[in-house]
Backbone:
């Protein structure tokens, strides 16, 4: 973990130089993780990158309170997570989900089966969006390998046991709905 | 059930394995640095604002002092560097007397003209640079210049002025030195011709006997 003692963009040359170094270290350390967090919500690489940029700009704006941050990793993930959720409300997620499903299907199956696979993946994404908010959030965060249950609990503001329960319920509910959908077809 | 689990696992793995775009870190750093440079301009203003809000009376007094100082600076500056207008005119060398040959050309009455030089407004910054000696030189340089009054007309000039003002154009045109010279020469020639004949005749009448012995004596030799 990078030390953030004295992290501030003060007017002095030494302090500004040090803060730039710290900021570069922050970006280098956490940008990939934040990108995956944002991508799990938005399913768009361009939108996820914008979210990561906005997250680091927020870090810059709140640099005075950085020494008070106890867990920088969780704090950054929470910023990116909230920014991604906020951005998803403002864009049209259906189009992004279609593009993501098509890309994912094309990369995993041959071309003749890609259309059916894209429809299946699209159906999963659609049912995920229909899940209750807490269950959906836990399910999306569980897709990120680097995050443990404790960190997910910190990001979502819940206990670890609640996170585990929500994750179990989310998977069960999603599976049931997908099976019901297949039966209807 | 197996298919559903597979589909869910595929979606979650697709979200997990999302590749970071190339050059994302560099772009993020550039964006953040641009934002930081734009933000730092307002940093000290914001800090000053917070401080002023914290101690309103002290900063109000300081602000009043600054305003008073700003208002007083031009007055002090003006008093110190304002060019002094000397009541005395700068003495200038007397003009040489006009030669008589040019009197006719300068026959028009001269009006005493006062040439006043407009004072150039100097920039305060340049005024600050000059010291006391230079300011004295600047005052002398910027002082108004008044030439000496013209000399009174001579008697000949007065006659000429009177002649020019009272004569008709024909008289003025006749006042040509060449014509007058020719006229004088003609009169002199007539005078000599007339009085030369007259004197020869009178001399011949007065001394007719004296001339004959002289001629006889000459013939003897």
Residues:
């Amino acid at each position: 973990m990078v030390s953030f003692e004295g992290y501030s963009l003060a007017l002095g040359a030494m302090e500004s130089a040090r803060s730039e170094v710290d900021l570069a270290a922050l970006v280098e350390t956490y940008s990939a993780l934040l990108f995956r967090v944002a991508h799990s919500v938005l399913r768009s690489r361009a939108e996820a990158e914008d979210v990561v940029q906005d997250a680091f700009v927020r870090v810059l704006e709140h640099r005075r309170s950085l020494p008070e941050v106890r867990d920088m990793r969780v704090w950054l993930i929470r910023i990116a997570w909230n920014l991604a959720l906020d951005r998803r409300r403002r864009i049209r997620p259906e189009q992004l989900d279609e593009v993501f499903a098509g890309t994912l299907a094309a990369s995993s199956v041959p071309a003749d089966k890609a259309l059916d696979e894209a429809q299946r993946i699209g159906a999963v994404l659609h049912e995920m969006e229909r899940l209750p908010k807490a269950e959906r959030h836990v399910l999306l965060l569980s897709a990120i390998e680097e995050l443990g249950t404790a960190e997910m609990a910190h990001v979502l503001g819940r206990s670890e046991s609640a996170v585990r329960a929500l994750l179990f319920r989310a998977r069960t509910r999603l599976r049931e709905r997908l099976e019901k959908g297949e039966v209807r077809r | 059930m197996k298919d559903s689990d597979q589909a869910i696992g595929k979606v979650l793995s697709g979200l997990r394995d999302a590749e970071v775009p190339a050059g994302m870190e560099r772009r993020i750093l550039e964006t953040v640095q641009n934002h930081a440079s734009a933000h730092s301009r307002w940093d000290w203003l914001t800090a000053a604002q917070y401080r002023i809000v914290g101690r309103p009376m002290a900063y109000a007094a300081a602000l009043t002092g600054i305003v008073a100082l700003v208002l007083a600076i031009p007055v002090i500056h003006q008093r110190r560097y304002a060019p002094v207008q000397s009541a005395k005119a700068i003495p200038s060398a007397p003009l040489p007397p006009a030669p008589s040959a040019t009197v006719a050309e300068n026959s028009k009455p001269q009006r005493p003209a006062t040439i006043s030089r407009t004072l150039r407004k100097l920039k305060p910054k340049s005024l600050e640079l000059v010291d006391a000696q230079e300011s004295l030189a600047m005052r002398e340089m910027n002082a108004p210049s008044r030439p000496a009054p013209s000399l009174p007309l001579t008697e000949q000039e007065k006659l000429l002025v009177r002649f020019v003002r009272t004569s008709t154009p024909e008289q003025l045109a006749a006042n040509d030195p060449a014509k007058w010279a020719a006229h004088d020469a003609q009169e002199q020639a007539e005078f000599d011709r007339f009085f030369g004949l007259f004197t020869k005749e009178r001399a011949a009448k007065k001394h007719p006997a004296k001339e004959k012995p002289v001629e006889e004596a000459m013939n003897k030799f």
